[in-house]
Amino acid sequence: xxxxxxxxxxxxxxxxxxxxxxxxxxxxxxxxxxxxxxxxxxxxxxxxxxxxxxxxxxxxxxxxxxxxxxxxxxxxxxxxxxxxxxxxxxxxxxxxxxxxxxxxxxxxxxxxxxxxxxxxxxxxxxxxxxxxxxxxxxxxxxxxxxxxxxxxxxxxxxxxxxxxxxxxxxxxxxxxxxxxxxxxxxxxxxxxxxxxxxxxxxxxxxxxxxxxxxxxxxxxxxxxxxxxxxxxxxxxxxxxxxxxxxxxxxxxxxxxxxxxxxxxxxxxxxxxxxxxxxxxxxxxxxxxxxxxxxxxxxxxxxxxxxxxxxxxxxxxxxxxxxxxxxxxxxxxxxxxxxxxxxxxxxxxxxxxxxxxxxxxxxxxxxxxxxxxxxxxxxxxxxxxxxxxxxxxxxxxxxxxxxxxxxxxxxxxxxxxxxxxxxxxxxxxxxxxxxxxxxxxxxxxxxxxxxxxxxxxxxxxxxxxxxxxxxxxxxxxxxxxxxxxxxx
Length: 487
Fold this sequence. Notes:
This protein is α+β, with helices and mostly antiparallel strands and 487 residues long. The chain is 60% helix and 13% strand. It is built from 12 helices and 10 strands. It has helices spanning 2-53, 59-79, 84-113, 117-189, 193-205, 219-251, 254-263, 313-332, 336-347, 422-425, 437-446, 452-466, and strands at 273-280, 290-295, 301-308, 355-363, 368-374, 379-382, 387-390, 407-410, 416-420, 475-482. Strands 1-10-9-6-7 form a 5-stranded antiparallel β-sheet. Strands 2-3-4-5-8 form a 5-stranded antiparallel β-sheet. A hairpin with a 5-residue loop joins strand 2 (290-295) and strand 3. Helix 1 (2-53) runs antiparallel to helix 2, helix 4 runs antiparallel to helix 5 (193-205) and helix 5 packs parallel to helix 6 (219-251). The longest helix is centred in the first third of the chain and has 73 residues, at 117-189. The chain starts with a helix and ends in a 5-residue tail after the last strand.
């Protein structure tokens, strides 16, 4: 049996190496496809902008999108070099893109250059829309194949892991059967003191592993009782190790690890800000919590805190796509509400998947922030004299189309912005009590005027004192403040 388990474990490890290699191709390929599609959409925005406004500056994003799409296509072909089916699908998408450029975009631009805007507009309606929809359909086909192959890879790994788990359970059942046979022999051959020992052993066999085993009587019985007690402790240890192993199998699956690493990448905090954060992962699952902060080309700073519904690889892939779209949107739109609307349009029908998002653009030189809140828990703006709650400015982002309002708040030198996901306020103690938003509000109130590091440390102490055990959902907490002026 040990040999069989060892052989099966070797097979699972070998499959993991294979799946890890395939994941190393599929995930970058999905990202490259997204950049290819976004580059072509940038071409479309530039071409349409030129037709509508007759402003040649719109051709700059057209040219930028052309370069971006070309680079992404080269990269994507490198990832798909060993997959003829995907290469054929990519060829169809590339050909559809070329037809749109040749039959529509170049014709429209040439018409505008000749001073024939009516001819350009007619081409947009008669040819451009049809060619671009054909391109989008081909890209969707490539995305569907990539998604399907990713699911197949994960399914292969799950089957092998379940096979190993069944072998482990079989070994445990066999051990219990052997134990039962030993107990029957003891019942037949050992005198009265053994009856008391037998009752204790039966309790262990029934699953009452928290009751210790001891005996008073002949030396042989005492020694036997000591052996049974050692067995009980060993079973407890093995059960705990099996539980940890099962959680590790779930948490360390290659795709899950890759997604978590991408979502939890170390953020680069600009020198104009101070930031500290706390992340406490849920047990045995990959959730979609993440936050990011980055500096825009004009010096402003974008920041997002998001929470995706559900768990597992599907939620992680959705979170990864959402993250890429949000970063792109903030670079295009100056209003966070408009950026959320653009992202919702690009996501399309999300099925039953939804997300809560807090998106803000920090204008440090103007001491203010613009923000939009898509159904996210109220973000706290802790000022020396009061605390503001930045409530939702629109619904959560999901399958229904919606709009989000952009609002403004002032940033002062002693202001600390505190954002979090609902895993924090829904954490429960051993007694079942919920941590709650009121408790968090009290902690932040006590720490008004303190640094982000002190606020995060105080919240962590409160969680520890509260006695939160195993988290059912990821806990993400971020505190941000302006960097004090020198001197």
